[in-house]
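[worker-b] picked up task from shared queue
[worker-b] task type: protein-ligand structure
[worker-b] ligand name resolved to pyridoxal-5'-phosphate; SMILES cross-checked against name lookup, match
[worker-b] sequence length check passed
[worker-b] input payload:
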Amino acid sequence: MSAQRSVNPRAELANVPIYDPALDPAALDLSDNTNRWGAPPVASSIASDAAGSLTRYPSAYSTELVAAIAEQLDADRSMIVTGCGSDDVLDAAIRAYGAQGGVLAHIEPTFAMIPAFARANGLQPRAVGLTTAYDTNAAAMIAGASVVYLCSPNNPTGTIIPRETIEQIVREAEGLVILDEAYVDFTGESLVDLVRSSSRLLVTRTFSKAFGLAGLRVGYGVGSPSIIEAVKRARGPYKVSAAAERVAVAALRHDRAWVADRARDATQMRELLFNGLRDLGLEPIPSRANFVLVPVHDANRVSDAMRACGVIVRAFSALTAVSPALAATGGDALRITVGPVSEMDRVLTILREAMIACA
Ligand SMILES: *Cc1c(COP(=O)(O)O)cnc(C)c1O
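[worker-b] inference finished, payload out:
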């Protein structure tokens, strides 16, 4: 073969990590906030006979699923866009509204994919630290940003951004405002109704967390028809597979009571986990989601020790000090997904042993 000059990707991609979560099917994995109670019953039964549709393309923009979501939200179908996970909707929305070389402002700490999506789409991420009241500075979020990203309840803190702050940002923003409601099912307090009065708000949701269907890869966005149209253009057709669409529609139509019951289980077990962590002398951050962030010294070493005992949690370091305890650990913390009582007992036992081993 003759020597050929190599082809170079866009320079910004050097700062976009290739995501690499450690998957170990044998372990108790409490690292990714998925539903520890499993997948909804009707959805699981439909998944097994979805094979009949495999030779055909699905609808380009998930007609059936859009109809089911619109019905549930009492919204017009023109206000819904689906995606291959809400990640896909977030990525497409950032591409649709992000000015090349412009700024995407996001709260900090938040969902780690957001700065990556910003860079991959030619934007500069700008982190605006959450305050110790788990609030954000609206003016700093808005100034010069072509996209503003908010997440409530926020990953990884589990905290809620005050409604007045979100309303102010939506009112005064110059660009698109994204409100990520991946964990809204655990609070029951959605701001999705704001999309009816705003032409710059996109609310995103997912089937990956409370709905127990992370492996399906289905998410959606709700916004004004003009925003939805732009996101569809940036997203492209056929992102939700036929099998995934069928299962998601079945879950929405038949399994909502199951999902609500498991979300109630999760909020109960969250309090058990929270109190158990306090009993260990730790100061977890009060959460409204299905996980708890707990400041821990040497979080990486502690999580490695836990992993060696078959329990996986997510370690963070250098997080913005949103609480005095998080300041005291230098921003080191563990994020633990809530699950059934036996899993909570186990993670608390292993955490206590790991902290002693690492002390
Ligand atoms: C898990 C998560 C998502 C991604 O959800 P998918 O629908 O699985 O892509 C989006 N936002 C936040 C904040 C999350 O924690």
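[worker-b] attaching auto-annotations
[worker-b] Residues 95 and 121 are 6 Å apart (CA to CA).
[worker-b] releasing lock
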